[in-house]
Amino acid sequence: MAYIEWQDCMSTGIPPVDNDHKTLVSLINQVHSCIGSPDEYGSLGSLLLVLADYTDYHFRREERLQEEAGYPGLEAHKKLHARLTGQVREMIRRFETTPGSVRARDLQKFLEDWLVDHILRHDMPYTRFVLGNQAAYDAAEAVSISQLRGGAPSPREDWDSMRVLVVDDNTHFRILMETVLSGVGVGIVKTAESAALGYELLARQPFDLVITDWWMAGVNGVEFVNRLRASMDPIVANVGIIMVTARCSEDVRAQALAAGVDDFLAKPVSARELLQAVSRAVSAHRT
Fold first, then answer.
1. 156 with 200: CB under 8 angstroms?
2. Are the beta carbons of 262 and 225 closer than 8 angstroms?
3. Of 82, 105, 155, 191, which is most buried, counting CB atoms within 10 Å of its CB?
4. Residue 163: is it exposed, middle or buried by C-beta count within 10 angstroms (0-12/13-18/19+)?
5. How far is it, in rounded angstroms, from Cα 256 to Cα 264?
6. How confident is residue 144, by pLDDT bands cut at 50, 70 and 90?
């Protein structure tokens, strides 16, 4: 059972805002699930990076909504966003410079306060200016997470048509990847906790992309990639592949690229970095 369930009282009635807020609820549940786990520190690194991109993305979408709708409280809302963004950046700085100074409980408390204070107190007042304003909705949907903080435009962001399989034996990381991908509207996201289950899912249905770890029980990522590339099924053999792993030495990277991965990312990985790689890989294999 989830630690926090999405409730009607949290809804603004504005689709892009509610979708982003559901992502926040999912992140709170993921932080809660890793409290006290053996993988708490590793999971927290990825969660913090994803949260940093989430704040940039959500706040920019919300501000575009308000700009388009002519909301008079926009500048005050921007100041609130700047404060929350600064708190996230400070938490990441502490985590990176002093390991152990930020724990999952700290992040959970921050996110819960954000959920109650920001959404229920500060977001509801602007809804009457935005509800039903399709031009404002479209302006928010046009915001690209890959172009935030000076990122280069991705070659393709047709998220709703994408089919992605995540193969990783780390439960927390699988759920986080699913949250990031679903949060931007990827049409189909499936997960597998082993290479064996990954093979089974690929045999049942086509995917545009596989995201896999290097080290999994029973088989490593290179062996998994080699088997996919050698498949007699041309759809499987030509699937896009991204390896995301904490084993990020140059030797591991070289082996992964030689096996045929399209991209190699080091954990912890940010949402923006992941989505840029997803967009590149899917675009390359669809042309």
1. no
2. no
3. 191
4. middle
5. 7
6. confident
- Residues 176-197, mean pLDDT to the nearest whole number: 93
- Residue 230 tokens read as 């050698």
Question: What does the pLDDT look like over 202-247, one tens digit per residue?
Answer: 999 999 999 999 888 778 888 999 999 999 999 999 999 999 988 7
Q: 262 with 281: CB under 8 angstroms?
A: yes
pLDDT exceeds cutoff 70 at 153: no
The alpha carbon dihedral of 243, 49, 11, 74 has a sign of: negative
| Spatial contact of 210 and 242, defined as CB atoms under 8 Å apart | yes
Please count the structural domains in the chain. Answer: 2
Report if residue 151 sits inside a domain.
no
User: Which residue, of 143, 171, 205, is where some domain finishes?
Assistant: 143
Asked if residue 175 and residue 231 are part of one domain, the reply reads yes
C-alpha dihedral, 225 to 230 to 234 to 235, nearest 10°: -20
Would residue 228 count as lying in a domain?
Answer: yes
Give strand pairing partners of 202: none
Contacts of residue 75, defined as CB under 8 A and 6 or more positions apart, other chains included, come to: none
- pTM for this structure? 0.87
- Of the candidates 152, 234, 171, 163, the one whose C-alpha atom is nearest the C-alpha of residue 205 is 163
Task: Please return the burial class of 8, using the count of CB atoms within 10 Å of its CB with bins 0-12, 13-18 and 19+.
Answer: exposed
Q: Which helix (H) or strand (E) holds 164?
A: strand 163-167
Answer for the pair 209, 164: CB distance below 8 angstroms, yes or no: yes
